[in-house]
């Protein structure tokens, strides 16, 4: 624990007026919102990486559904006739296609899931999606809806030879109301592009992710992505006003409501939010976007224990109230790996067991800065927090956020990562990380040298939402590690009445474990819904339920 003599200079460093200068004062239009990505577009690892295994090899118990037809030249010719442009069809069925052309659609970015797809379709309109799905349904051709392919549970890539229907050409903003803040956009609009469009209008997209430079809003909705702004703006179940969806039989459901209140019958859009493309394909989204904050501050703090981190979060909610927009947790192991890979300077002089990133967003720079200063003075005088810095310009703003957003990609540096996205009662959040770390160490699976498959076990995530990202960095995917983790992690979660998926979805990785978070009655109703919308089972098969 830090002594009072050490706390005093630290507090002065935090409270210095120039360090408290809000980012908005540097550039209100750009910096007040996180519309400039601090992370690059997610790319596949260099050619030196180990070849990815096919999902069918990793999950040999999954068998191709005998109902589905094999692709033929006749099928391909039909798709080419309706999509027109050669660039809208990647045809590996009738011609030899370079592996580099089709692999980005077959392989997830973690290199953990890989399909055998030979045909990629890129429709340019909802009507083209309708024709594609209608034909596929009539001919029993399985499809996988795909956006930016940044998912983490294998939900956006094929397992066998399913047709990938990619939304990247459907990338237009259809409508924006500068009074109400309602945005209507195609499913293929990249999240960061949508946010930059809104920034010019003084608004903000109510979702922010580390993969914002690659992910698409249709995929965000289809997975019910949570992200970094949920603490402030809530989930997509609340902000999405309407959807345009194409059903498996080609029917276009036009429910692009622009109203915040519409109490007329069943709210059908909610079925498609988080359905991972299993009952229909989202082609457009209507969403309510809040005003962009004019003043934003970011603080990065070092904390000596998880108990003190909990205390800091309680005080942040009490003292920062309506301007608190993010409270992100990081353990020392996640930061150690991030800096080990990036080889950059740490924001704090010392190293601590835990770190938190706090963001405030408001309309009055002077008011927000004063509030933040009083909060920091209070938690440091009470020795809740030991050290910290506050961004004073755009560069520092992005740098502090990169300490959190950059973790995900650096964890895969050694060859792979097992990722668990979990909702846990907040007092127990970090206990799981400690238990898993001990379990793998006791099993002789973790160590510093290549003979050990596990590099480290880390925990980080959205403390404001009780959402933990438990990640196990490995030198390669290993059956012994998987057996040690599953179903242990899910049993642990069930014992705490938590959820095995907080925001990443189920995909193929968690399909067989849904019973740890849902009872038989609920799962049965889900299966009935699936069979009602998709009786032929062509939509994103082998996943979800």
Q: Could you characterize what this model shows?
A:
The protein is α+β, with helices and mostly antiparallel strands. The chain has 20 helices and 16 strands. The chain has helices at 4-15, 28-31, 55-58, 73-83, 99-106, 126-138, 191-201, 217-222, 230-233, 236-239, 269-272, 306-320, 332-342, 365-381, 394-405, 407-410, 429-442, 479-485, 488-495, 520-533; strands at 89-91, 119-121, 143-146, 163-166, 173-176, 182-186, 240-246, 252-255, 281-288, 295-303, 324-331, 354-362, 387-390, 416-423, 454-462, 467-474. It has a seven-stranded antiparallel β-sheet, with helices on both faces. A five-stranded antiparallel β-sheet has the order 5-6-9-7-8. Mean pLDDT is 90; it is low at 1-48.
Task: Please state the structural category.
Answer: alpha+beta
In round numbers, the mean pLDDT is 90
Low-confidence stretches: 1-48
* Overall 3D form: globular
Using only C-alpha atoms, the radius of gyration works out to: 24 Å
């Amino acid at each position: 624990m830090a002594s009072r003599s050490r706390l005093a200079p630290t507090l002065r460093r935090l409270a210095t007026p120039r360090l408290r200068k809000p980012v908005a004062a540097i550039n209100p239009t750009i910096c007040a919102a996180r519309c400039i990505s601090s992370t690059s577009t997610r790319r596949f690892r260099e050619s030196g990486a180990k070849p990815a295994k096919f999902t069918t090899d990793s999950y040999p118990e999954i068998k191709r559904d005998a109902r589905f037809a094999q692709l033929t030249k006749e099928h391909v010719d039909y798709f080419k006739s309706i999509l027109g442009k050669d660039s809208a069809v990647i045809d590996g069925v009738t011609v030899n296609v370079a592996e580099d052309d089709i692999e980005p659609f077959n392989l997830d970015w973690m290199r953990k899931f890989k399909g055998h797809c030979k045909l990629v379709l890129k429709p340019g309109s909802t009507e083209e999606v309708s024709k594609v799905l209608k034909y596929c349904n009539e001919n029993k051709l399985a499809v996988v809806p795909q956006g930016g392919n940044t998912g983490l549970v294998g939900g956006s890539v094929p397992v066998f030879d399913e047709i990938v229907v990619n939304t990247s050409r459907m990338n237009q903003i259809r409508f924006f109301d500068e009074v109400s803040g309602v945005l209507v956009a195609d499913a293929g609009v990249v999240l960061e592009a949508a946010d930059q469009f809104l920034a010019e209008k003084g608004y903000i997209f109510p979702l922010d992710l580390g993969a914002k430079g690659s992910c698409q809003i249709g995929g965000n909705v289809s997975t019910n992505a949570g992200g970094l702004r949920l603490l402030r703006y809530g989930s997509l179940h609340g902000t999405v006003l309407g959807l345009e969806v194409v059903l498996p039989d080609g029917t276009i459901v036009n429910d692009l409501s622009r109203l915040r209140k519409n109490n007329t019958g069943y709210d059908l859009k909610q079925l498609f939010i988080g359905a991972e493309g299993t009952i229909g394909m989202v082609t457009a989204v209507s969403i309510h976007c809040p005003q962009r904050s004019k003043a934003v501050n970011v603080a990065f703090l070092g904390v000596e224990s998880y108990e003190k981190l909990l205390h800091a979060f309680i005080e942040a909610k009490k003292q920062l109230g309506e301007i608190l927009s993010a409270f992100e947790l990081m353990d020392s192991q996640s930061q150690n790996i991030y800096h080990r890979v990036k080889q950059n300077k740490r924001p704090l002089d010392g190293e601590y067991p835990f770190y938190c990133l706090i963001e405030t967003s408001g309309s009055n720079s002077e008011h927000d800065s004063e509030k933040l200063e009083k909060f920091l003075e209070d938690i440091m005088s009470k020795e809740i927090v030991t050290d910290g810095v506050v961004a004073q310009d755009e560069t520092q703003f992005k740098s502090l956020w990169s300490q959190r957003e950059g973790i995900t990609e650096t964890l895969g540096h050694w060859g792979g990562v097992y990722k668990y996205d979990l909702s846990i009662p907040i007092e127990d959040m970090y206990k799981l990380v400690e238990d898993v770390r001990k379990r793998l160490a006791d099993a002789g699976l973790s160590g510093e040298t290549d003979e050990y498959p596990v590099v480290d076990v880390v925990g980080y995530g959205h403390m404001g939402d009780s959402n933990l990202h438990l990640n196990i960095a490995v030198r390669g995917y290993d059956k012994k590690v998987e057996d040690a983790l599953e179903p242990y992690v899910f049993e642990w979660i069930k014992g705490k009445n938590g959820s095995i998926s907080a925001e990443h979805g189920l995909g193929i990785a968690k399909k067989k474990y849904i019973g740890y978070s849902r009872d038989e009655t609920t799962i049965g109703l889900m299966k009935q819904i699936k069979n009602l919308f998709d009786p032929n089972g062509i939509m994103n098969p082998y996943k979800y339920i």
